[in-house]
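Q: What structure does this chain adopt?
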Amino acid sequence: MLDLVRSFVGCPSSDVHILNLPNEILLAYAFADCVVLLNARTFAFVRALAFREVFPSARDTSDHVKCVSIEPGMKLIAASLGHHVALWSLSGVQKDTWRVHSSLSTSDSEAVTAIDCKSGLLGVGSASCLSVYTLGLEEDLLVWTRKWSISAQPYSTVRFSPSLMHVACITTDDNIVRVYSTASGSLLQILRHPRPVKDFIWRFSEKSSRDDLILYTVTTDATLRIFLPVLDTPDFLQLHASLDLYSDSPHQAISKAGSPHSGIFWLHKDTLADSFNTIVSEKSNHEDDTRYRRLKEMNDEGWDFFARVFPDNLLSLNRIQNIDHRPPTLLKQFTLLQSPPSILSSYPRHLHILKTPKHSSLIFVTSPPLRTYEMDPLQFFEEDGRNGMILLAQGPSFNESDTSKIIRFVRTPEGRGLAIVRESSVEAWHLHSGSAEMRRLGRWKGANLVAVLERGKSVALYSESSEKTMLTLHRSPQLSSPVSFDVPRLISLFCLPSGSSDFLIGITPSYTIVHIEVPSLDQPQPPLLKPTSVTSTSLPSSKPLVLVIPVDPMAWSSTRKSGNNCAHDILLSISNDGELAFWALEKGRFHRSWVCTGHVRTGKTGYRLARCSSAKKTALVSPGSNGDELTIWDSKESEFASGLEYRQIFKDEAINDLDWTSTPDLQSVLAIGFSQHVVLLCQQRMTYFNEEPAWGTLGRVEIGHMLTHQISDSIWLAGGTLLVGAGHHMLQYGQCKPSTSNENKPVGLFEHVVWLNGPLPHYHPQMILQCLLWGKVGLVKEIIVSLFKFLKNSSVEGRRPAKELSSVPIERFLETDWKSPSSKDVMARPQYSVLFGGTEETHLGEDQDRFSRSLVQYVIDELEISPLVHLTSNEHAHLLVLLQTTLEIDEQSRALDSNGLRYLISMRSFYILNARVSSPSPPGSPVSEGHNSYQYKRTFGRERLRFRDMVWAFHSESQEILLATSTLACGGKMKWVDAKALGIFLWLSSTESMKTQMEVIARNQYMSGDDRDPTSCSLFYFALGKVRLVHGLWKQAAWHKEQALMLKFLSNDFSQPRWRTAALKNAYALLSKQRFEYAAAFFILGGSLKDAVHVCVKQLNDPQLAVALARVVEQGEERPILSDILMSVIVPIAFEKGNRWLGSWAFWLLNRRDLAVRILVSPLEDVSKSLDIPISDIGDPNYDDPSLALLFSQLKSKTLQTAKGTNEISGRTEFKFVLQTARVFCRMGCHALALDLVRSWSFERPTVPRRASNALGDSEDTLGPLQDGNRRPVFTFPGHKRRSSIVIDMEVPSDPSTRSASPEPPVAKQTPLVKNSNKAVGDATSRKTGLGSLMKTAKQDVSVPDFDMNAFF
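A:
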């Protein structure tokens, strides 16, 4: 998602050091308080070795690293700061990991001026002495022991000879090179020069076995001298040759350069030899080619090469011959070639040549400024080298201000301009459009507050002093002079774009808002830099404020139209009681004013950090005893949503920074800055498949493996660019570059956010599931047919590009299936073949566009092999499940009602998914092929259906078919674990069906084990009253140790009190032995159903079992034990977990159908006030299920009681409920269904009775007509027709009437059938006009038989 595209880690002020590793070559140089490691070829940042890692006391020092040395054999890097020396080594266990090796502090506490580390020796030069240390091991610790120390001048360079027998030193501005003995520290030789020596090099070769002393020195006049020993004195160096400016360069080159100054550098002999050998070995068949013969000659002769660079970047290459000749002979020198000017991009002070493993090219590294070039020897040595040198990478120029630590970042609203606030300065930068390149535009002195304008071209600096507070506006020096003016004392300053001007908004300590309008540079003729107006306003808040911050304008600031900002929120205020308020600036004709656009009550105070996104998502950080608590709040607070979307406590470390950015489609991404990493959060799509939080981790940016400095600030820039500042360094992260290959294609940040929270494609399993639940079966079948066509015509191997699938028009989602143009093929096609015993399956060749079993099977088989891209493993599994489920419900659609179909969808998905999880992955599937991506984590099954699915079956009129289908799904042998998973005894309505099914379960429980244990089924048989049957089962259990006792005990008559008492005593005895299920069985045997269900709830933790026993055992209308379970157990659980489905089901069984409707829409606290029992624990509102609206649309006018409950819900509440459901659809990625919902929802209220007079003049209650017959049909109910009457509830009224009872038929004297009750039920809406007459009719003592669906079969 995010890659490190550029690192701002400083440029070396002097030479760089080279470390050759097996896979790469590193450059090491000192910068500020650390040693920076870069890849030599690309300048890619590898690591910064901070001195504080070794010496924590250097954390707050202003000193910089002075010296760096490389030990190539042991892979050591040594650096000095002050009087300390730190060493790091490359780990041999963890790849590319640098660890602290050892440390050293000089005893005299004098600053170290020079170091050199070679093969366990460390030479250290300080202000007054020269010391040599040896490396040893003491108590498993690496320790440096001083070998000798002598008084000396402050040497600037110390280097050991290749044989380690000598150490040479020079000082700054001194003409002498001193050579000491490494063994004793005695001065061996002094080499005097006519000019100051600025550098020297011990010539060495890894391929040579000789340890001859050969020393190259370079003086300030760019003259190189060669010192060699003679045979008689092998340890005494003598001058043998020199290369000055005039001896090795033609006069025309000097005249072209225009200056006698130059730099000369030795090109390492081994490096050139490796490159020449590679070229010659690869091109052995080109012996007649002059270029290859020349390279071969140069390689065989063993020349030493020297490069001289002139100020005009002209390069002259010289060679010296016979240096390795023994006995020494005359050294020969001549110029090999001269390049044209400007072959290098800059004039360097240091030059290195590097070998590239297994490659013929050479790498030139120059500094400062840092540049790297690639040289092709064949082309370079062909003529004058003009075609053989290519610039590969370049670093920034050295700037002393870069060594100042970064404090914070400030950006322009659109993210193209940036201000970097350092300890001593402020810098303005610009991010180029369409690229990740950042360019510095200017630098100014530090200030208290900073705002950056005009994409970095202008800055506003606010400074405070004891005398006054001043704001200074700066532009680039070439544009205009700075302008300063007095302003009130400010605590915050930021920029707001507004067409032809930029608004600076300052906030005072009293939260007064200061407006400063600055002319824009985008005008044809930029005006002078001075504010056009400075005004002050205040926020009209009724509460004391503790914080006012800007709303991030990233999403809308790119549109620079006049007055554009007035349509957006600009400020967020937080009051002392934790209330968030959003403010927009309303620009009037004569003045500006602030308008509050919304409130959110958080209920918390003491926030430490706060940031608000363009989408009005507010991130708040508050300290706590367990760590920092991060909460994210939405601005849309209502009775259906508290506004809280996310909450997490970070226990490990404190949150240092928050910053928002927005994607092009206004999705918000939050960057949370910690000390060593940045966590990225974005909204996650809501789903029926996984229980995940509303916000999830999008990614993580780690800097700990590169930098040990703590992150000072992180900020989003335009285009998804994240800038991280730590210490003196900046790391720029950008979106992944697109790849040409489909396999392992990198995904950009914004694209990944769309995957997680954007609109779903029509083939996504969540979209298909919601279409099935809302009755759009025909549309789903069309989607499957289009998916079949795509798979059939696709010729791409492997994972298929799903973006090539043709999308379904939005109009199709707005249609009902019965109006579908393809209904004859998809929805309303009669299955005559099934009716007459045939098969629906057809060959694909006959009719490929026809939905059939063979078509669905083909799609499933293809997707098993080649999954669609952008689908996780879990989503892929659900897609296959829904394809198979759609086929099954299509084959049974004529026998089921809509609620039965919804239950069947969930039930079949439940079993098919669990079967797929338990089975091994099919060959070729992503899981079986070992994909490591997060997309291919195996999904997990569920233990039971959700209560939502059970409620669909509860309200279905096809329960017998559902029961048969459920039994078939269990393999024909349903046991209690299966019945519990499907909620059989929660949704069955017929008592006889429940008894029959419980007997089936008892039989299957008994037959499930090989032992045929009667105890496994006793509970169910006792509940059915079949004691004799259990007695017979014990006769067959000869193996059981309790057989004799049970046969004797069960032979008694349990209708007698004494034996019932005996059964209860046995039940308590079984409780003491923790045989809870058997104890419940004996409680039922003893006639104590209440104790049995208590055991099921408390000990077995199985409320479903308690409900099943109560519904089967209890007879009659009252059923007090069932009512007690529902009120004391089920209803509190529903409120505690916020499960509105469970609560609606419980109230329906309790004959409180008004509450069964209200709990779907009304806040739980309001519903709890209508109950006779106290509800202390109320969970989350849980309106995040669009199916709640579907159930509410069914129940709100189903019966008189539900009509009462509907009328107790205000129209405004219902309106907000529908909007909340539409938002949930959008959160789920089903935007088309959200549009369909708000487009077709009917807000018509249930019809109320009206008074009508008959022919005799008597009045009677009748049903009034509908108010409007031209309303759109209810959402997704094909062929829906509004009820012309309301079903009268047959059960006992749920609560006493609050009005007079209905009069009896005309008699001499009217008397009420039911007395008035003093208890008022419901809120004021329950007593609307006409509702009393409606409820009065409902409470008449009318005897109507129960409706039984079984009568039709």
